[in-house]
């Protein structure tokens, strides 16, 4: 699978010096997170202590991973960068586009038919540009990364929010938008606000029914869905060392659910065991040589409140199993309190499905713990009351679990084993038992349980728990079943109890796989032809955006003045539009359709200054585009908050919007606009937002003098001929102004590479 041992050795060779230098400039002992961050600075040497939560810093990640839904636009953009190969080791994983319905074999066949075009495209681009390609069925991106590429002390980015899973193997691994990934693939730095640090001290030892999953379910209850925003969560203490590597992965995985930038653990014996079990003795040996740099300094963990911005302590011995939900992953309920809580809130008690899998909980250990419960159902003559669904995390896990008889245990209980892929976790689930929108309950071992996420039904109450708890609840069929004290009646009418789960951390006979599903790229891929059908609905090769003509922008018309919240979902909706993520023109038909028009408080209903008629935003904008009339979008506070998807900047750019003026931007979206060659401005005086009228024309009268730190003047001409002249600000530095001049950051990269 070609992990890059030379690259890993290089990272380790530099670590002592870089960590030492960082300790000097920071002037105190370092956390693990700081060691990784400072040893991955783009400018190589730390010359100052960065302000946590304040300074934007350029980093140099070691690896990139992309999943199939986000990789399409990322690779389409990379193809414009004029590079022969990616500059940083990269992999693409086909896991999101496979629907769970009838079981692995049939589902995979169907996915290969319906998304063949996309998989072929991703495969051939990977082959051409030196990217490792994991075929549909090979597994879920984050399990595959953990089993093959993650390494202690490394830094990676991935175009998926659960990239953070690799923290289980001691990485700083962060989910980013495609545009960020493309920069790094093309050899540019990756910018991140230096994170704050939250320390979680784990004491005691997990026991009985309590699993690693319960640690993060508890942390989510404490921090809530926003509590980790802008921070790295670093776990330490004896309790951390006592847990398996994949258990640590589960905890880091769900750090995304508290908004954390990422989570991580220091290198320990469990990680060494995992590296050796996954055939990476050389990585374990190399890590052992720099062990002291792969964990926080002793003084930090002895007095964590002096070094972290916030400290949480959890005693694993006392921790009890939890179920979190419904509708939000931070609503934490100890299983012992579920009876009252469910009654109080009128949550449906009968459980329809127990789903085990996702990148969060599909390790070998997870399957063995869940199977030890399932086996008891067979032994004690219990018939499961709920349906069972299993998604193994990778083909390696599936093959090994099958060899070791684990899957047979579930199959003997009539479970459906779905493809090694995301499936129900991302709504790729053709659920047959409920077609209407009745209130119902499911339990799963995934990470997210937002309304409609698994099956599209807003009345499905989804609860998140450990795989063994999901197994127990699925057998009982009841949400309020507490296996630590409740009895079940078996098919013979006898009362029985389930014994505590038993797990096997790593397969006794080692991992095994016949075909892991990996395709290595050609050494020289220059001859590989990328084929995209002219009439394809799902893929479209990108045309470079036009460079700036160097003139002032005059006569721009208002497209929409957005009222209130305007997130990336309002600008570029997800759901059914996922299908068009690789086709810029088709997905542009969702451009700003969720934004509320400030003049009539309706969505997707704006006035055309060409006809005086009202219509949808994309259609109206396409008319302006056809007539080559530039347009402006006006927004409120925190415009573009939400995901980092670059489509929210590319779509308006593609349709001919030239400028976005807002009260304030969400930073990532502002950067995305800059990267795509758009002008993103903020009102100097916020109340100028109120001056904007429906028929306004905008003249940017000093754009010719566009320069770093210099505000721009905008003349607003109203339909009655009156004018307002306002000042707007921007945050473009000279390099970003070059992006604007060239039409996009990619155009500039291409020019520099020519
Ligand atoms: Fe995302 Fe779920 Fe797939 Fe994990 S399993 S990568 S959370 S969709």
From TrEMBL:
One of its GO terms (biological process) is tricarboxylic acid cycle. Its cofactor is [4Fe-4S] cluster. GO terms for cellular component: cytosol. InterPro entries: Acnase/IPM_dHydase_lsu_aba_1/3, Acoase/IPM_deHydtase_lsu_aba, Aconitase/3IPM_dehydase_swvl, Aconitase/IPM_isomerase, Aconitase_4Fe-4S_BS, Aconitase_4Fe-4S_dom, Aconitase_dom2, Aconitase_mito-like. Keywords: Iron, Iron-sulfur, Lyase, Metal-binding, Transit peptide, Tricarboxylic acid cycle. Belongs to the aconitase/IPM isomerase family. Residues 34-477 form the Aconitase/3-isopropylmalate dehydratase large subunit alpha/beta/alpha domain. It holds the Pfam family Aconitase. It is an enzyme of class 4 (lyase). It catalyses: citrate = D-threo-isocitrate. Its EC number is 4.2.1.3. GO terms for molecular function: 4 iron, 4 sulfur cluster binding; aconitate hydratase activity; metal ion binding. NCBIfam families: aconitase_mito, PRK07229.1. Pathway: Carbohydrate metabolism; tricarboxylic acid cycle; isocitrate from oxaloacetate: step 2/2. Residues 557-686 form the Aconitase A/isopropylmalate dehydratase small subunit swivel domain. PROSITE patterns: ACONITASE_1 (PS00450). Gene3D superfamilies: Aconitase, Domain 2, Aconitase, domain 3, Aconitase, domain 4. This is Aconitate hydratase A.
């Amino acid at each position: 699978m070609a992990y890059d041992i030379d690259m890993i050795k290089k990272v380790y060779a530099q670590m002592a010096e870089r960590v030492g230098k960082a300790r000097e400039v920071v002037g105190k002992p370092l956390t693990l997170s700081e060691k990784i961050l400072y040893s991955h600075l783009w400018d190589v040497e730390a010359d100052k202590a960065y302000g946590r939560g304040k300074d934007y810093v350029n980093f140099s990640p070691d690896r990139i991973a992309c999943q199939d839904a986000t990789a399409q636009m990322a690779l389409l953009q990379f193809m414009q960068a004029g590079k022969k190969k990616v500059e940083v080791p990269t992999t693409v994983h086909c896991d999101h586009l496979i629907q769970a319905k009838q079981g692995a074999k049939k589902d995979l066949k169907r996915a290969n038919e319906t998304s063949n075009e996309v998989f072929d495209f991703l495969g051939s681009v990977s082959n051409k540009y030196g990217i490792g390609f994991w075929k549909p069925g090979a597994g879920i991106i984050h399990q595959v990364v953990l089993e093959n590429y993650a390494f202690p002390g490394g830094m990676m980015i991935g175009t998926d929010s659960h990239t953070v899973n690799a923290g289980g193997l001691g990485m700083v691994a962060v989910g980013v938008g495609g545009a960020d990934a493309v920069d790094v693939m093309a050899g540019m730095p990756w910018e991140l606000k230096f994170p704050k640090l939250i320390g979680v001290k784990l004491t005691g030892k997990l026991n009985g029914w309590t699993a690693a999953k319960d640690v993060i379910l508890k942390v989510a209850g404490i921090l809530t869905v926003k509590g980790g925003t802008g921070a790295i969560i670093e776990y330490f203490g004896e309790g951390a060392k006592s847990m398996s590597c994949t258990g640590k992965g589960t905890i880091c995985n769900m750090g995304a659910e508290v908004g954390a930038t990422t989570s991580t653990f220091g290198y320990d014996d469990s990680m060494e065991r995992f590296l050796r079990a996954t055939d990476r003795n050389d990585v374990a040996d190399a890590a052992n040589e720099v062990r002291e740099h792969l964990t926080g300094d002793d003084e930090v963990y002895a007095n964590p409140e002096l070094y972290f911005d916030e400290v949480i302590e959890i005693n694993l011995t006392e921790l009890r199993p939890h179920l979190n939900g419904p509708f939000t992953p931070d609503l934490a309920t100890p299983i012992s309190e579920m009876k009252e809580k469910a009654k109080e809130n009128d949550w449906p008690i009968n459980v329809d499905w127990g789903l085990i899998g996702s990148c969060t909980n599909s390790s070998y250990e997870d399957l063995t713990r869940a199977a030890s419960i399932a086996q008891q159902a067979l032994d004690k003559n219990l018939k499961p009351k709920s349906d069972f669904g299993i998604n193994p995390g990778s083909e390696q896990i599936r093959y090994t679990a099958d060899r070791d008889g684990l899957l047979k245990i579930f199959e003997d209980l009539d479970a459906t084993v779905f493809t090694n892929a995301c499936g129900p976790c991302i709504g790729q689930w053709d659920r047959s038992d409920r077609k209407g929108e009745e209130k119902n309950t499911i339990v799963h071992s995934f990470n997210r349980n937002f309304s409609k996420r698994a099956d599209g039904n807003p009345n499905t109450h989804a609860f998140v728990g450990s795989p063994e708890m999901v197994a127990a609840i699925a057998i009982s069929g009841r949400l309020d079943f507490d296996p630590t004290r409740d009895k079940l009646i078996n098919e013979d009418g006898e009362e029985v109890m389930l014994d505590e789960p038993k797990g096997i951390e790593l397969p006794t006979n080692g991992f095994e796989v016949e075909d892991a599903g990996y395709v290595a790229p050609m050494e020289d891929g220059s001859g590989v032809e990328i084929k995209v059908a002219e009439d394809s609905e799902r893929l479209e090769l990108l045309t470079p955006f036009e460079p700036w003509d160097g003139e002032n922008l005059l006569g721009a018309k208002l497209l929409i003045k957005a009222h209130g919240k305007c997130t990336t979902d309002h600008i570029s909706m997800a759901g059914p539009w996922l299908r068009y993520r690789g086709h810029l023109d088709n997905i542009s038909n969702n451009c700003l359709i969720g934004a509320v028009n400030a003049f009539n408080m309706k969505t997707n209903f704006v006035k055309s200054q060409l006809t005086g008629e009202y219509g949808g935003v994309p259609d109206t904008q396409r008319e302006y585009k056809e007539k080559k009339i530039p347009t402006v979008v006006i927004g409120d506070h925190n415009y573009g908050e939400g995901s980092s998807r670059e489509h929210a900047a590319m779509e308006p750019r593609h349709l001919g919007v030239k400028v976005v003026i807002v009260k304030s931007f969400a930073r990532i979206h502002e950067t995305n606009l800059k990267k795509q060659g758009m002008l993103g401005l903020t009102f100097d005086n916020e109340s100028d937002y109120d001056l904007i009228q429906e028929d306004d024309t905008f003249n940017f009268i000093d754009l010719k003098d566009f320069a770093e730190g210099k505000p721009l003047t905008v003349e607003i001409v109203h339909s009655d001929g009156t004018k307002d002249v306002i000042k707007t600000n921007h945050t473009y530095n000279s390099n970003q102004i070059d992006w604007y001049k060239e039409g996009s950051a990619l155009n500039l990269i291409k020019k520099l590479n020519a």
